[in-house]
Amino acid sequence: MRRKRSLSLFITAIGVACLVILGSGKHNFLQLGFLQQPPAIAQSVRISDAWQQVYQQLPDLPLENQYVNRQTGKVDPENTLVRRLISYHTYVKGRPPNYRLDWKLTLADYLGANEWIREESYPGHDTLRQNPLEGDRAAIERLSRNQRNALVQALVNVFSGVSKDNS
């Protein structure tokens, strides 16, 4: 009888622990390694095109597109700072593209205040002659706080389907 009661209490404790984990937020649950899946992205926005919409909203944002493609030997004008930023955020880090906090974490990565960015996994490291990571970090560091906030808002707008006029 005592063993049954101990087993029952143990199972109840496990159940409560699972509820606490599940109820404590999606990110904590994902960080434990459960339910790992790619971020959900609005059907109307393709990541490969989103960078252009960001530059339409923020035309003064640095392009950082002076890097030479390894295969062609020519400057790749479409390989921009924002395109690499989006690729890093969504593909390398697996962060959802429609939340401000996640974009702020990504910018904190660039500023060296959050997670370390590995050169060998940074977008462009394998397609460009020079890894653009250092230049991209410097470009993000040169932005003022207001410019970084505007960048975050533009990214959220693009991936949430909000036009600049509606924000």
Would you mind describing this structure in some detail?
By secondary structure, the protein is mainly α. The chain folds into 2 domains: 2-31; 47-166, no CATH class. The chain contains 7 helices and no strands. The protein has helices at residues 2-23, 26-31, 47-57, 81-92, 100-110, 133-142, 145-160. Helix 5 crosses helix 7. The protein is globular. The termini are far apart.
What is the radius of gyration computed over CA atoms, rounded to a whole number of angstroms? 21 Å
Distance between the termini: 64 Å
Largest sheet report? none
Percent strand: under 5%
Order of helices and strands: HHHHHHH
Mean of residue pLDDT values = 82
| Unreliable stretches covering 5 or more consecutive residues | 15-39
> Count of helices?
7
Share in helix: 40-55%
Count of the domains: 2
Give the CA-based shape.
globular
Number of strands: 0
Which class do the helix and strand fractions yield?
mainly alpha
A few lines on this structure:
The chain is an all-alpha fold. The protein has seven helices and no strands. It folds into two domains: 30 residues; 120 residues, no CATH class.
Fold topology:
Blueprint: H1 2-23, H2 26-31, H3 47-57, H4 81-92, H5 100-110, H6 133-142, H7 145-160
Helix pairs in contact: 3-4, 3-7, 5-7
Characteristic terms for this protein:
single chain, 167 residues, 2 domains, 7 helices
